[in-house]
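Field log, afternoon session.

UNIT: design team B
ACTIVITY: writing a sequence onto a fixed backbone
BACKBONE:
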């Protein structure tokens, strides 16, 4: 045996031993189809669904291991950092609607719905996401909000007066946490909004402190701060998801007054091609028919979303590149309009923009790659070519 061969074997043995040692000391819990439900019932879990061949997953693993070793010192509640190998736990990943890798989901103990993390994957962002999902303060020093609202401003609601207050009429309610930076920034705007509609006796502007009345906020499924809900006769009608300027909030009030969204819904119950754009605009009433045959690449968006606005020209160009190609459509759905809100909820759209690829009516994969024209074109073309090859067999 030559010297260099011997040296290579020794080095390989050390690397293997090192990897085994790392695996042995890692605090990341491995889950699969056999123990998933049982373990999740015991505590909060932040789970990475991955594939061993996925480059993004491999790059994330050191940060994921660091998160597992530091989370308990940074978060006041017990959170288990876990992973699921989707190449072996295929049924579990299918049940969890995992269509790309890595998929990161937070499962709160005792809560059926999971929260998907779509933000940056650095340690600080992951920790912030955990705290926000659990409703914990980012900085314990920032727990007090100075109450500067005038007497005729937003109505302060509590578990004692909330249900009686909203039982009849129309109400725009802010659910907030005092430590929340976004809530602090919009406090002045909310004051101003309350004053500007103060003469309109048919509408009230209210607020609920979720750190004091958590049960009330759980009842209305408040999962982030601030959450702005339109409530009519005691029932939640719509969640406001636009920009938080005084003008936009006032416009929303004007749109909602005296109705429950039917007018907005009626406007969208038709399919159109936007101007000269080759992108098909789908709505709740024609969505199933729209994706029933061929390959359909759908962008779910909100008009106020900055990322959506920036990629809109690229999406139109993508539609143009497929003009004349049979069996493929580029489409979009405005998730803020009418029955589209329920459609987007049914399709499990958790952020904007979300792009799903469909084949003959079935969801195939979520696009999680670069939003350049070439990358998205090749993503669609790959499935289209595979489908054509199968059809020719």
């Amino acid at each position: 045996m030559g010297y260099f061969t011997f040296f290579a074997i020794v080095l390989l043995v050390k690397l293997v031993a090192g990897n085994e040692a790392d695996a042995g000391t890692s605090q990341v819990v491995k889950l699969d189809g056999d123990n998933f439900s049982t373990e999740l019932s015991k505590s909060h879990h932040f789970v990475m669904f991955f594939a061993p061949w996925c480059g993004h997953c491999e790059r994330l693993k050191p940060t994921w291991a660091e998160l597992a070793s530091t989370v308990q010192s940074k978060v006041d509640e017990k959170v288990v950092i876990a992973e699921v190998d989707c190449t072996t736990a295929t049924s579990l990943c299918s049940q969890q609607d995992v269509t790309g890798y890595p998929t990161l989901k937070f499962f709160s103990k005792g809560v059926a719905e999971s929260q998907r993390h779509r933000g940056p994957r650095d340690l600080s962002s992951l920790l912030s996401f955990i705290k926000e999902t659990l409703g914990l303060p980012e900085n314990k020093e920032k727990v007090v909000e100075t109450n500067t609202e005038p007497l005729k401003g937003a109505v302060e609601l509590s578990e004692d007066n909330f249900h009686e207050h909203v039982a009849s009429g129309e109400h725009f309610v802010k659910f907030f946490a005092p430590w929340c930076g976004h809530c602090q920034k919009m406090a002045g705007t909310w004051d101003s909004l309350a004053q500007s509609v103060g003469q309109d006796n048919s509408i009230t502007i209210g607020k609920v402190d979720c750190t004091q009345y958590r049960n009330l906020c759980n009842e209305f499924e408040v999962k982030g701060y601030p959450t702005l809900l339109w409530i009519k006769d005691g029932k939640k009608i719509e969640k406001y998801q636009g920009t938080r300027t005084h003008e936009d909030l006032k416009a929303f009030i004007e749109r909602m007054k005296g109705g429950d969204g039917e007018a907005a819904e009626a406007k969208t119950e038709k399919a159109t091609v936007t101007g000269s754009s080759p992108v098909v605009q789908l709505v709740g009433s024609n969505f199933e028919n729209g994706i029933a045959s061929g390959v359909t690449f759908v962008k779910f968006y909100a008009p106020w979303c900055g990322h959506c606005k920036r990629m809109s020209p690229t999406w139109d160009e993508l539609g143009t590149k497929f003009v004349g190609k049979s069996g493929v459509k580029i489409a979009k759905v405005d998730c803020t309009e009418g029955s589209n809100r329920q459609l987007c909820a049914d399709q499990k759209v958790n952020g904007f923009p979300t792009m799903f690829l469909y084949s003959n009516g079935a969801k195939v994969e979520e696009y999680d790659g670069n939003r350049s024209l070439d990358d998205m074109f090749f993503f669609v073309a790959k499935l289209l070519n595979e489908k054509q090859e199968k059809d020719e067999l």
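LOG NOTE: The longest strand covers residues 44-50.
NEXT ACTIVITY: expression trials, pending approval
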